[in-house]
């Protein structure tokens, strides 16, 4: 990944506010999303915590003991898992952190016998979409022209058969 000390660990309670704040800040700066996005992330995270199972995980990627990335996984019906809260801070991109975070979640899903892994993304997240494709995810559902968070984009769902 990088010459810096990098690790991936399970999130603790103190990480949750950081996750929400960083999603809001990054999506505002990079995609012009309004504060409704941050609020939506906070709501999704509250639901994630409320509905957590033994399978559910939120991981934090750290570089030099500071948080720089997040990813979460939850169980869905039909032996399926869902990825959420995928984020790498801009200064840490291009160093293999996103791939390492994704591989951690993939390994977790495979170790628990999941048949497929799904995720939601938006058409404006071009780098993320390229990573998903390289990892074998396939675009399975598109809802064009979604107007949310002060922007218009296509909502996409991607699936990987495990």
Account of the protein in words:
The protein has 162 residues and is of the alpha+beta class. The chain has helices at residues 13-31, 35-50, 97-111, 126-134; strands spanning 6-10, 57-63, 66-76, 80-88, 116-122, 138-148, 151-161. A 7-stranded mixed β-sheet has the order 1-2-3-4-5-7-6, sandwiched between helices. Strand 2 and strand 3 form a beta hairpin.
Indicate the percent of residues in helices.
25-40%
**Overall body shape:** globular
The largest sheet, given as strand count, sense and whether it forms a barrel, is: 7 strands, mixed
From the alpha-carbon coordinates, what is the Rg to the nearest angstrom? 15 Å
Beginning-to-end CA distance, first to last residue: 25 Å
Strands side by side in the biggest sheet: 1-2-3-4-5-7-6
Order of helices and strands: EHHEEEHEHEE
Strand coverage percent: 35-45%
Write down the overall mean pLDDT: 96
How many helix segments? 4
Structural class by sheet pairing and helices: alpha+beta
Number of strands: 7
Low-pLDDT runs of 5+ residues are none
Search tags:
162 residues; alpha+beta; seven-stranded mixed sheet; 4 helices; 36% helix
Q: Gist?
A:
The protein has 162 residues and is α+β, with helices and mostly antiparallel strands.
Question: Would you spell out the secondary-structure blueprint of this structure?
Answer:
Blueprint: E1 6-10, H1 13-31, H2 35-50, E2 57-63, E3 66-76, E4 80-88, H3 97-111, E5 116-122, H4 126-134, E6 138-148, E7 151-161
Parallel strand pairs: 4-5
Antiparallel strand pairs: 1-2, 2-3, 3-4, 5-7, 6-7
